[in-house]
Design goal:
Number of helices: 4
Structural class: alpha+beta
Largest sheet: 11 strands, mixed
Number of strands: 11
Strand content: 25-35%
Shape: globular
Distance between the termini: 42 Å
Length: 201
């Protein structure tokens, strides 16, 4: 019998995992790899999965935001990609400090395999990357996704947010606050994130 993931969902490279009892026998493989280590076919499969999971509402800029870091991929026994996520490096300015953060992007599960623990496997692997390589983690969540992240210990930022744009500080009072991982920051001070094309957060 394949090993079972710990309850916190912590995955490791190449670990074969088995899901909840109702999915006994449904063995999956969790892999972590940098963008540079993925083949063109693997990247196409990840992009196709995201297009399917987001019902076509996943832009080229959204895809670009998820590249250049570490990917977590869950495949079934036949090698079909079931779930994906990535974490990339960004910078936050907070209270006079520049923080190197792991920003989680492009998390998705194939629609017919949702609610089976696969998103938790992906997040467990990405959280390990954040814990080992960054000062804290951040992500922007949909309403559906927020339940998964909050249940894992991510916390909503309660302060103001903005960005360091091409012409200076851009305050973003209407922006949905990000969720943070492993952060102990004072919400009295604004979070300013590095600028990028498309959605800044």
């Amino acid at each position: 019998m394949a090993p079972t993931l710990p309850s916190a969902g912590r995955g490791q490279i190449g670990v074969r995992t088995q899901l909840r009892p109702e999915y006994r026998g449904d063995v999956t493989t969790l892999r972590r790899a940098h963008t540079s280590d993925l083949t063109a076919a693997e990247l196409r499969a990840a992009r196709a999965l995201l297009d399917e999971a987001f019902d076509g509402d996943f832009s080229d800029q959204d895809w670009e935001h998820g590249l250049g870091g570490v990917h977590a991929l869950v495949h079934d026994a036949a090698g079909v990609l079931l779930a994906h996520g990535s974490v990339v490096q960004r910078r936050l300015l907070h209270n006079g400090r520049s923080l190197r953060i792991g920003y989680v992007e492009a998390v998705a599960v194939r629609p017919d395999r949702q609610r089976q623990g696969l998103g938790g496997q992906v997040m467990g692997a990405l959280e390990q990357v954040v814990d080992g390589a960054y000062e804290l983690g951040a992500l922007s969540a949909s309403d559906d996704g927020a339940r998964l992240y909050l249940g894992r210990g991510w916390r909503e930022w309660k302060g103001a947010v903005g960005a360091l744009g091409p012409t200076g500080v851009v305050h973003m009072p209407e922006e949905e606050p990000p969720l943070l991982w492993g952060a102990d920051l004072d919400p009295a001070h604004e979070l300013l994130i590095d600028w990028r094309d498309g959605d800044v957060y």
